[in-house]
């Protein structure tokens, strides 16, 4: 089973959702978010895990114990995380690294705002969830039977990796690529690569098991670097277009037999989208705090917004806006397809417009999504952005979609793309400013999307 792995080389992408202990990066920004106005460790939080803990404490939810997987199935059910999102990573780069290897990969599962990591025979589940105002929160849950299971929040260890320049200097998530040895240890000396939706297909997913088809495209999944002296010599063919992992690893202990390619692509986009929402949030809150201090010094009204404060807030939104609209997304030269049913499960969530279209509709022929605007625009984290920042992002987005903004930055969006996104958001996002709803330039010329929304009755 491992012969295939040991005779070929590959780079792997590490999804550091949870407790990735890749190497000891200094958390240079950590002290800034521990203090005012962020107060990361002391401010109240309301993420999916804290909500679940309240339900457990109140007796409204009971976590079921599974003899083989502990609390994993019950936690996934309670958090609304589908089994189809399963991804398997065999790198020794997380909290329980001594239990992880190519023959015993770590399983990751996720939805829009929570991530769960499971290691077979591991003493804890690793959970991360997004608080609307504070960003990524990290927890463990002991894998032992208890009358009232308790999620334990991390108080700093995780942030040695999860709050660095790789997460935009906020508590966040990392998807990375490194070279790895046949035993799962990474070759850090060979260099590392941070991965998001702009990364070339050829630099993704080594150290992951990847199930899916992708034609002539080549990634680095399903194989390891057998030559420690020359780990860059990769045989990508060995891991290409794998739809059945049984010849590589025993998947019977896991919830599914898949490590879905489309789930991996969504994860790569989502992780950095969460980070950029948090970074914009922090930057705007700091600008407003500094503005209040200056107002006091200059005897201005407390709620006065100076030009400099407004510029800082607007600048905070620009990087977020570009990522939201998939600027610099790596194009697909070949169609791709997953194996687990994740794509269908993800798309059916909606919400859908009057023509049955959704920002969750996949393209998978030339890019990830048919309508390139992130579905996380519906997230609680986006809604929790400071009002001035959120209004600026929505105003700029509207100007781009109505072609009032013709910047070269957004030329990847065709007129049809812009019109469709505008109409989808108008029908599905109820809290948009009024100018969004009165400025449409006629109806869409696109045919209805082959969306999972069809057949479900009225659009949400």
Structure in words:
The radius of gyration is 22 Å and the shape is globular. Helix 6 packs antiparallel against helix 7 (307-324) and helix 7 crosses helix 10 (387-401). Residues 1-29 and 455-460 have low confidence and may be disordered. It has 460 residues and is an alpha+beta fold. It has helices spanning 3-6, 30-34, 48-57, 72-79, 159-162, 261-297, 307-324, 342-347, 380-383, 387-401, 415-428, 434-437; strands at residues 11-15, 87-89, 106-110, 114-118, 124-131, 135-142, 151-153, 175-180, 186-194, 208-209. The chain has 2 domains: 3-259, no CATH class; 279-437, no CATH class. Strands 7-6-5-4-3-2-10 form a 7-stranded antiparallel beta sheet, with helices on both faces.
Please write out the topology.
Elements: H1 3-6, E1 11-15, H2 30-34, H3 48-57, H4 72-79, E2 87-89, E3 106-110, E4 114-118, E5 124-131, E6 135-142, E7 151-153, H5 159-162, E8 175-180, E9 186-194, E10 208-209, H6 261-297, H7 307-324, H8 342-347, H9 380-383, H10 387-401, H11 415-428, H12 434-437
Antiparallel strand pairs: 1-8, 2-3, 2-10, 3-4, 4-5, 5-6, 6-7, 8-9
Helix pairs in contact: 6-7, 7-10
Short description:
This protein has twelve helices and ten strands. It has helices at residues 3-6, 30-34, 48-57, 72-79, 159-162, 261-297, 307-324, 342-347, 380-383, 387-401, 415-428, 434-437, and strands at 11-15, 87-89, 106-110, 114-118, 124-131, 135-142, 151-153, 175-180, 186-194, 208-209. It has a seven-stranded antiparallel β-sheet, with helices on both faces. Strands 1-8-9 form a three-stranded antiparallel β-sheet.
């Amino acid at each position: 089973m491992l012969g295939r792995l040991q005779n070929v080389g590959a780079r792997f992408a590490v999804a550091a959702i949870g407790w990735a202990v890749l190497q000891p990066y200094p958390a240079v920004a950590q002290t800034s978010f521990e203090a005012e106005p962020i107060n990361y460790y002391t401010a109240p939080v309301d993420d999916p895990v804290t909500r679940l803990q309240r339900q457990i404490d109140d007796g409204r939810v009971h976590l079921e114990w599974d003899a083989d997987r502990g609390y994993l199935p019950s936690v996934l059910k309670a958090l609304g995380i589908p089994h189809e999102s399963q991804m398997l990573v065999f790198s020794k780069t997380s909290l329980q690294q001594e239990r992880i290897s190519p023959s015993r990969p770590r399983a990751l599962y996720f939805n829009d705002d929570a991530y769960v990591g499971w290691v077979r025979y591991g003493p804890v589940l690793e959970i991360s969830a997004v608080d609307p105002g504070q960003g990524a929160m990290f927890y463990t849950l002991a894998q032992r039977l208890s009358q009232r299971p308790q999620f334990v929040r991390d108080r700093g260890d995780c942030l040695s990796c999860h709050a660095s320049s790789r997460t935009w200097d906020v508590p966040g998530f990392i998807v990375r690529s490194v070279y790895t040895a046949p035993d799962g240890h990474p070759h850090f000396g060979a260099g590392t690569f941070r991965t998001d939706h702009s990364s070339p297909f050829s630099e993704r997913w080594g150290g992951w098991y990847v199930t899916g088809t992708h034609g002539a495209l080549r990634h680095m999944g399903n194989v390891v670097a057998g030559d420690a002296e020359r780990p860059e010599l990769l045989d990508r063919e060995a891991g290409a277009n794998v739809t059945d992992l049984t010849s590589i690893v025993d998947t019977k202990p896991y919830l599914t037999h898949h490590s879905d390619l489309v789930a991996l692509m969504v994860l790569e986009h989502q992780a950095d989208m969460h980070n950029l929402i948090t970074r914009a949030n922090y930057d705007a809150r700091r600008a407003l705090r500094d503005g209040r201090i200056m107002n006091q010094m200059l005897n201005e009204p407390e709620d006065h917004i100076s030009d400099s404060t407004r510029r800082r807030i607007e600048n905070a939104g620009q990087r977020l806006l570009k990522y939201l609209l998939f600027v610099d997304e790596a194009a697909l030269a070949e169609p791709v397809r997953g194996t687990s049913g994740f794509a269908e499960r993800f798309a059916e969530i909606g919400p859908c417009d009057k023509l049955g279209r959704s920002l969750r509709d996949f393209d998978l022929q030339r890019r990830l999504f048919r309508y390139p605007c992130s579905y996380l625009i519906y997230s609680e984290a986006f809604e929790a952005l400071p009002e001035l920042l959120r209004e600026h992002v929505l105003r700029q987005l509207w100007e781009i979609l109505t072609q009032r903004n013709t910047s070269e930055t957004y030329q990847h969006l065709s007129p049809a793309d812009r019109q469709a996104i505008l109409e989808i958001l108008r029908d599905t996002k109820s809290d948009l400013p009024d100018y969004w709803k009165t400025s449409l330039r006629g109806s869409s010329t696109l045919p209805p999307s082959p969306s999972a929304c069809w057949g479900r009755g009225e659009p949400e």
